[in-house]
Amino acid sequence: MLELLAPTTGLRDAWLRARDDWGPGVHEDGFGIGPDDDVDSPEGFAAWVARLNDQADPARPLQDGRVHATFRWIVEDGEVLGGIALRHELTGAAARLGHIGYGIRPSARGRGIATWALGAMLDEARALGLPRVLLVCRADNSASAKTIERNGGVLESSDRVLRYWIEL
């Protein structure tokens, strides 16, 4: 059964397997990894997980350039299949990236997991009181475009990226 779970050190080995599935040098959308995050050492992984969970708390101050965000891992039977992030506001880079970003590990794609996860994350957006959310994907990413459209996305503009709004 699919679940959206807050990041946890208890899934470190499963997360590392998901990361390895992506391969070296590939960005895993939805995981909130920054260039200074050390996810390979147990200590670094724990610090990264703590930062992700702290970022959801609107009372906590954030580093420059970050916005409050809710991170969830997409998990099935103890395996991390992907990640999804909900940015609480559209300022700075978030205005370009959209409210929600997600990624599914290559071996788990084509099963409707992203569509399910996006639908579940829209419930979290509603709980935050957001009236609508912006989602952005590359114009050549037809799978992501279909995921967004299946969840009610209405195309606002297209160029090298597609910008969709979903009314909540």
Give the averaged pLDDT, no decimals. Answer: 93
First-residue to last-residue Cα separation: 26 Å
Secondary structure category:
alpha+beta
SSE ordering: EHHEEHEHEHEE
Helix content: 25-40%
Radius of gyration, CA atoms, in whole angstroms: 15 Å
Instruction: Trace the largest sheet across and list its strands.
Output: 1-2-3-4
Largest sheet: 4 strands, antiparallel
Give the low-confidence spans: none
Give the tally of β-strands: 7
InterPro entries: Acyl_CoA_acyltransferase, GNAT_dom
Protein name: GNAT family N-acetyltransferase
Domain N-acetyltransferase: 35-168
Pfam families: Acetyltransf_3
Task: List the topology elements.
Blueprint: E1 2-5, H1 12-22, H2 42-54, E2 69-76, E3 79-87, H3 93-97, E4 100-104, H4 113-127, E5 132-138, H5 142-150, E6 154-158, E7 161-167
Antiparallel strand pairs: 1-2, 2-3, 3-4, 5-7, 6-7
Protein name: GNAT family N-acetyltransferase
Domain N-acetyltransferase: 35-168
Pfam family, one: Acetyltransf_3
Characterization of this structure:
- The chain is α+β, with helices and mostly antiparallel strands and 168 residues long.
- The chain has five helices and seven strands, in the order E-H-H-E-E-H-E-H-E-H-E-E.
- The chain has helices spanning 12-22, 42-54, 93-97, 113-127, 142-150; strands at residues 2-5, 69-76, 79-87, 100-104, 132-138, 154-158, 161-167.
- A hairpin with a 2-residue loop joins strand 2 and strand 3 (79-87).
- The chain is globular and about 40 Å long.
- The two termini are 26 Å apart.
